[in-house]
């Protein structure tokens, strides 16, 4: 009953098998081999236009390098105040960008409020050297708390960004979960709505280590090749990432695993509601369930072998939490089983 | 007949198998799982003392983060002028260290000359704010051109570094090749000679992606955990690196693959000498053979399917190269076969 | 009637005279001349203990270098959300510190609220590599909106910082104005309350360019010499800064000019209240007056030759501002005359 | 008899007087005042085309910011191996540029050898992410050892740089000395020969603190405004720098002081040659004299009150230096008097 994070899971058998399959032979190194190129083409096919793809080691690398492609002296990237970039990357953005900074935007349910973003952008004048300059907007899809931006919300944020001459980046650590939940195409959820660059994550959804920056501006992408190398993020045997993505994107595996995770979250939410011992903090839209429980009950679950994290209340959360209660996060993954969910439900009940 | 680089090879079957074996189940993420810890212990056992181990994505990351642990404002790290850090990492050291720099030291056969290093160090006064300050010395073992520092040479460089209050870092991208060639223990080649930090590479010797910083100063190592995370180098599913190292270090696999690579280099050198069409630029000591050939012969080999690189003459090289000749590098790996070597020899002859 | 900023004023005649007096002859360069050393001694005398003094070019340099002396990978410095460091330095802190970041703390009247600071600090765990680490606390005295921390408030913030193992930095761009207003000694307002490092500004109070970092930890200060040089902040003819500080600190000139500025602010506040056309947004405690006026009145003043800035409402400001009104900032300086204040009052009235 | 450096001198009386003259009144701050603008116009007039001018605090700031305007990830700036940028700025270039680096080029007499530069540039392929990328070429005029690039030499370096798509920067810490010695116009020595950006120094030639970046590409210059602010190099009371430059550039003062310095160097060289106790290491072309003397004689001069530095032999220096001799540097300035020179000559003789 591991619900601590989707990155506690292992690797999907089909991906493991493909890695083994590609383990022999020789290949050009440093992202320029035949398998790398085939996977780049697969990404272009997937996004219905030519894209530039850069494999990197981690989501933090993807986020910070993607945004650095739009870097400016005195630059400020705008993102939700609880975004992974802000809260969980040890200040990597400032470091990798050479000193630019993040401006946290308010918004309920883990999503930037459009008016709050507009107000935040309005504080900075492009020509003033004192306050710093807006350089990009970033949103996480699905969000860090398991909610979703609708296509309309993405389009509205992109339009606002464009009015300020800014690119829109999508932290897609859980891109597949969002895509599966919205049941739209990759193009629909990204460039057709105004997204310029994506941190395309495969690790949380069944890969071992498969993260990529995907960019639609091919000219600007050229600089990223140097930024990636300079940051120590260019794998020599890059085909091992390519092999993971090849299997991941083949025959819709990635969407099947994402749909499974999402379904497990729905099932878990249902079990919780049914139990009466936990109530949902908000409705899960992807593969994360946030629930309020008695701390004693949480302890009991842990003793029985369940793993999950207590979580700080997000901005705008107005739910009542009694002194003997707390907010907890449960993350499902491709490896979560209906049995896990049932066992947890039974323990709760 | 792939001799382009040892990182064009794939993964050793035993390592691939161990990755698959560990693909299921769940594990604590971010370098703190049971398998990670077991592998850290294995490293300590290997080095005959407690070490701190940090898995990272690339050799460039290992080199630049290891040195950054000893960073100073105005810092200067001394290394051979043709070291990988200087020549092949896109300036990553300056970037990752936040602006410190490398000072290239002369020396024949890819090795820092002790007197040249002493002279270079003497140029910088620790207390002067103008010239900058020595912060570390780094040597590559085996070197970028397939030669070796003897234990005595390592000890002499370490002693000189210590006299200047400086740590000694070893770029061990081909650590195993050096160890196998010298037939000594990891402790013998490192801390017993005064080495303080190692970039411990497994990728070139049969892993997919297994690089680690190994440090002997446990106190100083604590900061590296933050530096690694900030640099986007902390894998979430770090156990996939651990699984590679586990197999790599089990039952001496790493030394067997290294010995094989080294033996293939000796065989290749022999085949070249016998052929008369190529002459060795210098005697190979690890898994790289540098030879002078007619460009026409090189072209002929390539047409027949051989892959290898032309190479600039290293510092201090005094061999004669005719206008219709050039210097070429051939790298052997765990995956090189005696048949590959024979075929190349036959083509040459 | 220039109330735009105290840095629109020129130089006090006594300081200009001293600069001219020292213009001849020769001196050791780069901060090590006789006059430099005499002024360092003067600072030690002033602070009643030995201090380390570093002249730099700007307040931004002083703030960012002083804090960088306490830098950590993943570092976070806590300061008021409207502090100069956050709002007016083009992200210099992130850049100069090599990627560390600021965390804005709430608080009314331009001052960090102690509880808000405590809550902010509590969000970061020293040992977690994900969230980043607290590295310092910084307060501005007098604040960016002309208010003051009492000695007790400084001591309370310092005590909280110390409980978290953090140094306390004081942005003293208007150090003298605060000192004069509180009528205490430099030691009283700083190290006796727990302050570790100061950006000691002279420019806004009558110098041309006289800013210094003052540190009480002499050991840690040694690194700052390298950081300053590396940042291009080490003047060759540093005695020109020393000459300014010599005159500035001689016979209490700096306190007289500060008292004058402060008195002019009081007079201006009085004139405003008397006029009925402007009401004070809050009571001025140093040399800045914030008032709410009709925009039409502001326009009228400007047409008559007055210079001052419209200002965004600070955090926690609850005053009523009608649609045809706005908040305006008026800054007084050593060069402000009673006549200026009277003229403005007359125009208002 | 102070020949230690031209920055040991004070300020020229006319410049001191102009500073005092502008000490009163009020001015718009942060480089946008009337006097600032007038001086910018003066620079444009001087260079016979519109230029962008950025006042900064030090030559190190000017050099590193000017080059940073052309920064690239993995960037390499090429300059003489003994250039101030390399040898005397505490690694500021790597820091200010966010991790780019310098490549030292060989050349006798302190000047890059054209063939050596060509060879150095040839080592780096623009499209390879491994080796790093050329981003700029920088030359010092007059050089760090008192020699001059002829206009033809500047043009040849610029042409080579342009063939590689690179800008040419001129470190003009002693710009006036070079100009006076060559007796050409500022335009002749810079953009008419292909120079793109200049570190325009006034400090060493009679100002207190007057350094500026001058750029001919006005579009690119816009970014420098943000880079300067972010680096803490934007003076609030910038008119104090403007006032110095106003006097410096008025009625040819700067060329008169430079001619004087240069003439004093010639006189000093003559006195040395006449004395027989010192021989010139090479012919001085600007305001620095390098001579070989017995160490005992040097000691004798110092005892008699002379200040000057021993100097390491520059690259390519082939002069004979006996064991009891050393190389010494003597720098003249606007403040050097014929009497100083005579006294030194008399002591020598």
Beta strand count of chain A: 11
Overall mean confidence score, pLDDT of chain A: 97
Following the backbone from N to C, one meets helices and strands of chain A in this order, namely HHEHEHHEHEHEHHEEHHHEEHEEH
Name the overall outline of chain A.
globular
Helix count of chain A equals: 14
**Strand line-up in the sheet with most strands of chain A:** 1-7-6-5-4-2-3
What's the gist of this structure?
Four copies of one chain form a homotetramer. By secondary structure, chain A is an alpha/beta fold.
Task: Give the secondary structure arrangement, pairings included.
The structure is a homotetramer of 349-residue chains.
Chain A lengths: L12 H9 L12 H14 L4 E5 L2 H10 L6 E6 L3 H4 L4 H5 L4 E5 L8 H9 L10 E8 L10 H13 L4 E5 L2 H8 L3 H4 L7 E5 L9 E5 L2 H13 L8 H11 L3 H23 L2 E3 L7 E7 H9 L5 E2 L14 E7 L6 H11 L1
Helix pairs in contact in A: 1-11, 2-11, 8-12, 12-14
């Amino acid at each position: 009953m591991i619900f601590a994070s989707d990155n506690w899971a292992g690797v999907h058998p089909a991906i493991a098998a493909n890695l083994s399959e590609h383990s022999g032979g020789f290949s050009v190194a440093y992202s320029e081999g035949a398998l790398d190129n085939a996977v780049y083409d697969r990404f272009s096919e997937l996004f219905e236009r030519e894209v530039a793809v850069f494999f990197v080691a981690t989501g933090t690398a993807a986020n910070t390098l993607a945004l650095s492609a739009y870097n400016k002296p005195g630059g400020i990237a705008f993102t939700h105040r609880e975004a992974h970039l802000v809260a969980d990357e040890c200040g990597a953005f400032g470091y990798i960008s050479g000193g630019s900074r993040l401006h946290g935007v308010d918004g309920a349910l883990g999503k930037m409020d459009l008016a709050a973003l507009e107000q935040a952008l309005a504080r900075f004048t492009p020509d003033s050297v004192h306050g710093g300059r807006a350089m990009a907007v970033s949103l996480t899809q699905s969000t860090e708390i398991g909610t979703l931006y609708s296509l309309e919300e993405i389009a509205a944020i992109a339009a606002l960004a464009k009015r300020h001459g800014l690119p829109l980046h999508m932290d897609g650590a859980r891109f597949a979960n969002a895509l599966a939940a919205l049941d739209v195409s990759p193009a629909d959820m990204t460039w057709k709505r105004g997204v310029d660059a994506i941190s395309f994550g495969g690790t949380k959804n069944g890969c071992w280590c498969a993260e990529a920056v995907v960019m639609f501006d091919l000219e600007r992408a050229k600089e990223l090749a140097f930024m990636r190398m300079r940051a120590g993020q260019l794998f020599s045997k890059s085909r091992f990432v390519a092999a993971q993505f090849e299997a991941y994107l083949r025959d819709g595996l990635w969407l099947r695993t994402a749909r499974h995770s999402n379904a497990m979250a729905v099932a878990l939410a249902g079990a919780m509601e049914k139990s009466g011992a936990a109530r949902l903090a908000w409705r899960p839209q992807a593969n994360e369930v946030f629930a309020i429980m008695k701390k004693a009950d949480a302890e009991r679950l842990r003793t029985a072998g369940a793993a999950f994290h207590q979580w700080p209340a997000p901005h705008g959360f107005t739910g009542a939490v009694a002194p003997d209660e707390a907010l907890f996060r449960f993350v499902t993954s491709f490896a979560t089983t209906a049995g896990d969910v049932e066992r947890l439900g039974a323990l709760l009940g």
